[in-house]
């Protein structure tokens, strides 16, 4: 087994275990039934905290991830998930439940470390494969999570509270595995290859070098090591140069805008879907029937995993068909969301959610 394959295997094991959280498909019912919190409090005072945390930390985490060279962020993600479930299990106050959402939001933001670490450890020709592997591992973890939770709940082998202990154990093992990941020597910005003496160049000289690497530069002197401030000064023009190159490409801009909006919509749907299912069930004849939240998550994850893995091994000219595909999928997702919001029966809401999530995972894998 080659080194990049072993690294991919360790990372995928982490990805699978961090998503193996059987209590999550029923977390809304758990909070309401076991923490004596009303649905209105959950929707308006607890769940929004994670959304704002993700918004406030995502860009910062991205830059810190590059500076710390990925691995510490992955370990910290595992730690954040462990803290999240410790607070969820033993916390009783509204404040503790809000802190659950803060740590959960930080952990979600730290996903950037999981999905970018591998690119620093493999050759470019393997990017498509490792992308499909990491995404598939995470989706399989979610599939097992939904399957286990549904079986245990349907057979009355565990209640919502006891499922949290399985989640905590899985996340603890994930954190331990993350420690075994190999260190990364280089990163995209702060620890990239640079010409000798680059830390002594002026911003203009750095910019000239970035625009034309063959241009001759005359640094004042060379330096074998760089301080944090020197690296920061070198990184700024590189970031700005990459930003201009990326967003001067209309194709990249279109996909980026779609990605941002689609991810925001997906996070909101994930956050509040259980509350919607609860309302639909209470307003229909399904109120006393068994909930299949876990089974629904398992089905959509299995379908998403199959499609994501397949996409990594097919070749389609997305530069030709991409825009039309995005337009069609986005319209379809909007219609599915509307159908889900108007559903009078729980089974229809379940089906709509599966379609919405599968479409999102398919296109987000293509975008990456």
Question: Can you put this structure into words, describing what you see?
Answer:
- The protein has about 375 residues and is mainly α.
- It has helices spanning about 5-20, 25-35, 40-70, 70-90, 95-110, 110-115, 125-155, 160-180, 205-210, 230-245, 250-280, 295-310, 320-340, 345-365.
Fill in the keyword field for this structure.
single chain; 368 residues; 74% helix
What separation lies between the terminal Cα atoms? 26 Å
Oligomer: single chain
Give me the secondary-structure category. mainly alpha
Care to count the β-strands?
A: 0
Helix-strand pattern, N to C? HHHHHHHHHHHHHH
Residue stretches low in confidence (pLDDT < 50, at least 5 long) are 195-199, 213-224
Strand content: under 5%
Shape: globular
Give the count of helical stretches: 14
Rg from C-alpha positions? 23 Å
Helix content: over 70%
Main sheet record = none
Question: Could you tell me the mean pLDDT?
Answer: 83
């Amino acid at each position: 087994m080659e080194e990049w394959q072993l690294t991919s295997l360790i990372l995928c094991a982490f990805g699978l275990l961090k998503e193996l959280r059987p209590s999550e498909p029923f977390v809304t019912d758990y909070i309401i039934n076991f923490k004596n919190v009303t649905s209105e409090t959950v929707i308006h005072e607890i769940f929004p905290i994670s959304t704002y945390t993700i918004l406030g930390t995502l860009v910062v985490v991205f830059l810190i991830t590059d500076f710390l060279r990925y691995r510490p962020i992955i370990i910290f993600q595992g730690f954040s998930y462990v803290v999240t479930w410790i607070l969820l299990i033993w916390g009783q106050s509204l404040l503790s439940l809000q802190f659950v959402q803060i740590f959960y939001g930080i952990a979600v933001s730290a996903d950037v470390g999981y999905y970018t670490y591998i690119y620093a450890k493999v050759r470019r020709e393997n990017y498509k494969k490792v992308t499909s592997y990491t995404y598939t591992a995470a989706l399989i973890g979610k599939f097992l999570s939904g399957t286990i939770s549904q079986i245990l709940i349907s057979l009355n082998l565990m209640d919502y509270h006891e499922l949290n202990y399985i989640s905590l154990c899985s996340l603890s093992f994930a954190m331990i595995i993350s420690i075994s990941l190999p260190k990364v020597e280089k990163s995209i910005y702060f620890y990239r290859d640079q010409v000798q003496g680059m830390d002594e160049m002026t911003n203009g000289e750095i910019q000239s070098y970035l625009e034309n690497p063959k241009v001759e530069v005359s640094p004042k002197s060379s330096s074998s090591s760089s301080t944090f401030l020197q690296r920061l000064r070198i990184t700024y023009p590189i970031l700005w140069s990459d930003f201009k190159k990326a967003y001067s490409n209309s194709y990249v801009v279109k996909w980026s805008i779609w990605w941002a909006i689609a991810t925001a919509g997906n996070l909101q749907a994930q956050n509040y879907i259980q509350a919607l299912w609860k309302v639909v069930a209470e307003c229909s004849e399904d109120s006393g029937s068994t909930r299949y939240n876990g089974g629904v998550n398992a089905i959509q994850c299995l379908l998403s995993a199959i499609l994501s893995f397949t996409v990594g091994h097919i070749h389609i000219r997305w530069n030709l068909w991409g825009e039309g595909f995005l337009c069609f999928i986005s319209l379809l997702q909007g219609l599915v969301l509307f159908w889900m919001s108007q559903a009078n029966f729980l089974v229809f809401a379940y089906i709509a959610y599966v379609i919405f999530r599968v479409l999102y995972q398919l296109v987000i894998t293509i975008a990456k």
